[in-house]
UniProtKB/TrEMBL annotation:
Limits of the Helicase C-terminal domain: 584-742
Family: Belongs to the helicase family. RAD25/XPB subfamily.
Protein name as annotated: DNA 3'-5' helicase
SMART domains, per database record: DEXDc, HELICc
Length: 853
């Protein structure tokens, strides 16, 4: 490590400082697992000041009021926007009170503890831990997996997922019982049994382009029909309820992967062609459906187990019905018996013979195809762990029409390339529907790759787009692949689910996170979480890079801090990022890592700061306003030239950027407390090609201005990564930084000049440049995220214009062009020559070299 942890003796005495520090501590304390992770920093045996170990007024108050403390009575103790300490730190403590539990005599041989709320704690250092972990990942939801203790929770969805792959409630209870240090609490056992009983009773089936709710249980049918929400969603046709013989269950099959080494052939792959389900016999049309069906039941040859009763629901009510079924504890399963689908055309697609599926990819797919059918749900793998290949393999297994939804045009192209790379699909069978390109596949069926915004666009469409949408909506798809599926719960994307008819859906993401509470909605919009990989395990195995994370505290010079305290909320972030000591830390770290041969990405959300930093340090930079050609040029240069070791990136680089050369990341400004952005940025260095080198480590530095809101946000941002097992070291001082030659802003005079420049620009330029960023992003079809981390369709209100590629501006690409700020466009036009000082410098140097004799 280039840095030394050192004691910061200075503590400013202003009340504002105390507030900020308190806020910081409170926020840290409010993050589950964080405090313990922070303490691990102490393992470094330094004598550094540790925030967790300082006496905290809040802790004292809490300690004195353990039984009766009501945080709402003390709102002034918590800074606005911080989750209250009482509910995060204390109530869960009560829930995790294990004192009443009786340990089994041989408890030391067992690695698992459970409380009365279904929370499980695994000793991950126990010899049995790997086995238990495999089981837990099937039946429970991982909450936090730091080095020594893993937390899981038995949740309804995870139990449903377990039952769906053939585990019975008793299997779950007995297996857990074997691993537990204590007896299983009876209420938890009852809860598991309850989930087992209701699971699988209701199914959502797509047949002949119509959606049906199916059940074999007449009591459940009656309940659903009488339900005030589900009842009205029924399609009132002559044939209200149909009764059919139940389709036979088939064995496990991951078809289409037989050529792929590494993917275990599952039992029953050579499944018999089972009988096609008979199509519906008419049952009755009366409102007293239940009674009549009951009579019918007695009259026909079917036993209750052998028949299913179904009623059709309106296409646009599918997610509403699914949501309600879940609320009634009868989740509507979406399972696709693709082997017995004789209606939809087969797609010629198989994995290429050389394709080697990694074990965790195989495991995740086995959860999807666990009972011989394709289950809808979500697979969570870390950034760079190969979600695309998982999606491609699922498509090769189902072998029916596939629709892929991606977040940007760039991602659409990447998906197409990955399909061609991993599978033997005919290139003509892949179509693209994006703002840049529209193509169709030639055969009866194929793969179509599009963006969320294309299929949710509610504006009047160009003729070509409208035709394409009709094509998408007018047929059944075997599989819908939803990339970055965490965006789906946004109101505008929900429509996608209803408007496209798919037999199965697979959501893929690294960060099943939203700052709102809508992530749970994926359970009925897509399906349960089927698999979530362990980041630390994958980095131990070399599939993703090992990363050392650090938060570098950068004190602010007094004159900057005064301005910071007097500034409004938005301008404060400008002073934080323009803090000259932060600049120096960034300069120091770049120099250090360049000298080690690292390739460095510096991330700044603030485009004004991005430009100033990059120009001063003579490095290339990219932001939303950079043209596509220059963007490609800069990326190629960064990847291939030893002359370029550092690249400055705005948030356009957060996702979908494959830069395997990058080994170090420095974050100077970020989007408030967004946990997802932190993880996505870390993802840029997880794919480092050098990850398999002996002793290799990538580095992630988050630079925060000390005693400011940045510290609070930083703690919140890290929470997700800490739960994945990363620990952030706190660096309070960079060794010998002030002795570094050419250190910028080393004199009071230069700092004063910087301050007056920032003050002068604060009102105008700084924020105008954010508009440029937004414009560029919109042209790219990327998502915006608001201060709360929620995805937004449009640029923030301050954005005045939409820039795009010239070809798009003709209106034929299905994108509307709005120009409201003409002067801003002029400034874009002016910038035809390379904007980057770095490139100008390279050009000058080349010119000089040419002139040399
Ligand atoms: N089984 C595999 N064998 C070899 N290479 C693989 C395998 N799986 C994935 N990869 C490679 O790993 C890299 C990352 O894959 P991919 O882009 O699909 O990751 P991702 O999980 O989608 O990342 P992000 O979340 O950052 O978009 C790619 O270069 C891909 O080709």
């Amino acid at each position: 490590m280039p840095c030394r942890l050192a004691m910061s003796s200075k503590r400013k005495a202003t009340s504002a400082v105390d507030d900020a520090s308190k806020a910081h501590r409170a926020s840290r304390d409010s993050t589950p697992g964080l405090a313990s992770q922070r303490r691990r920093v102490g393992d470094a045996k330094d004598d550094s000041w540790e925030p967790d170990e300082q006496p905290n007024v809040l802790d004292t108050v809490i300690a004195q009021n353990t039984q009766k403390f009501d945080i709402s009575a003390f709102p002034y103790l918590l800074p606005p926007g911080i989750v209250d300490v009482a509910s995060r730190d204390f109530q869960p403590e009560q829930k995790r009170d294990f004192t009443a539990l009786r340990l089994k005599p041989d408890h030391h041989n067992r690695p698992l503890l459970i409380d009365g709320w279904g929370k499980l704690i695994l000793e991950s250092f126990h010899p049995l831990a790997p086995k238990v972990q495999d089981f837990l990942i099937t039946v429970a939801e991982p909450l936090s997996r730091p080095t020594f203790m893993h937390e899981y929770r038995l949740a309804t969805h995870s139990l449903y997922a377990a039952v769906s792959i053939g585990l019975s409630s008793d299997d779950v209870i007995n297996t857990l019982g074997r691993f537990l240090k204590t007896e299983m609490p009876p209420n938890v056992a009852e809860y598991v049994r309850h989930c087992g009983r209701s699971y699988g009773k209701v199914k959502m089936v797509l047949r002949d382009s119509k959606y049906y709710v199916e059940t074999a249980d007449l009591d459940v049918l009656q309940m659903l029909l009488k339900d005030p929400i589900i009842g009205p969603c029924r399609v009132q046709t002559v044939e209200n309820i149909t009764t059919a013989s139940a389709p036979t269950m088939a064995g496990l099959a991951i078809a289409g992967t037989k050529e792929a080494a590494g993917l275990r052939e599952a039992a029953g792959l050579d499944m018999e062609e089972s009988k096609r389900p008979q199509t519906g016999q008419r049952a009755t049309t009366t409102n007293e459906v239940y009674n009549v069906l009951a009579e019918d039941d007695g009259d026909n040859d079917y036993s209750e187990q052998d028949v299913v009763h179904a009623f059709q629901i309106q296409d646009d009510k599918v997610s509403k019905v699914a949501e309600r079924c879940l609320a009634l504890h009868y989740p509507a399963l979406e399972e696709y018996d693709f082997r017995n689908d004789y209606i939809n055309a087969n797609l010629e697609i198989d994995l290429r013979p050389g394709t080697q599926i990694r074990p965790y990819q195989e495991k995740s797919l086995s959860k999807m195809f666990g009972n011989g059918r394709a289950k809808s749900g979500v697979i969570v793998l870390p950034c760079g762990a190969g979600k695309t290949l998982v999606g491609v393999t699922a498509a090769c297994t189902i072998k029916k029409g596939v629709i892929v939804l991606a977040t940007s045009n760039m991602s659409v192209i990447q998906w197409r390339n990955e399909f061609l790379k991993w599978s033997n699909i005919d290139p003509d069978s892949i179509a693209i529907f994006s703002s840049d390109k529209k193509s169709v596949f030639t055969g009866n069926t194929g793969v179509i790759i599009t963006t969320y915004s294309m299929v949710t666009n509610s504006r009047e469409r160009a003729y070509e787009s409208a035709k394409m949408m009709k094509f998408l909506q007018g047929r059944e798809w075997g599989l819908m692949l939803l990339d970055e599926v965490h965006v789906v719960p946004a109101q505008m994307f929900r429509r996608v689910i209803g408007s496209l008819k798919c037999h199965s859906k697979l959501g893929l993401t690294a960060t099943l996170l939203r700052e709102d509470d809508r992530i749970e909605d994926l359970n009925f919009l897509i399906g349960p979480k089927l698999y979530e990989a362990n980041w630390m395990e994958l980095s131990e195995q070399g599939h993703i890079a090992k990363v050392q994370c650090a938060e570098v505290w950068c004190p602010m010079p007094t004159e900057f801090y005064e301005q910071y305290l007097n500034a409004g909320v938005r301008a404060r972030s400008l002073f934080c990022v323009m803090n000259p000591q932060k600049f120096q830390a960034c300069q120091y770290l770049i120099r250090y890592h360049e000298s080690r041969g690292d390739k460095i990405i510096v991330f700044s959300d603030n485009v004004y700061a991005l430009e100033i930093y990059a120009k001063k340090l003579m490095k290339p930079y990219l932001y939303g306003g950079t043209s596509n050609t220059e963007r490609q040029e800069v990326l190629d240069f960064f990847q291939n030239s030893p002359q370029c070791s550092t690249l400055f990136l705005s948030k356009i680089g957060d996702t979908s950027l494959d830069l395997p050369e990058a080994t170090c990341l420095i974050q100077i400004s970020a989007q408030y407390g967004s946990r997802r952005q932190e993880a996505q940025r870390l993802g840029r260095i997880l794919r480092a090609t050098r990850r398999k080198d002996e002793g290799f480590n990538a580095f992630f530095y988050s630079l925060v201005s000390k005693d400011t809101n940045e510290m609070v946000f930083s703690s919140k941002r890290q929470a997700f990564l800490v739960d994945q097992g990363y620990s952030f070291k706190i660096i309070t001082e960079l060794k010998d930084m002030d002795k570094m030659p050419d250190l910028e802003f080393g004199t009071p005079q230069s700092r004063r000049e910087l301050l007056s420049k920032v003050l002068g620009d604060a009102e105008s330029k700084a924020w105008k440049d954010e508009e440029k960023e937004s414009a560029g992003l919109q042209a790219d079809g990327n998502m915006f995220y608001g201060p709360d981390g929620k995805p937004m369709r449009k640029a923030p209100r301050s954005a005045k214009r939409t820039a795009s590629a010239l070809t798009d501006l003709g209106g034929g690409q299905g994108m509307a062009y709005v120009e409201q700020d003409r002067s801003a466009n002029k400034s874009i036009k002016k910038k035809k020559a390379p904007q980057s000082a770095f490139f100008r410098k390279v050009a000058r140097e080349e010119e000089r070299r040419r002139k040399l004799p």
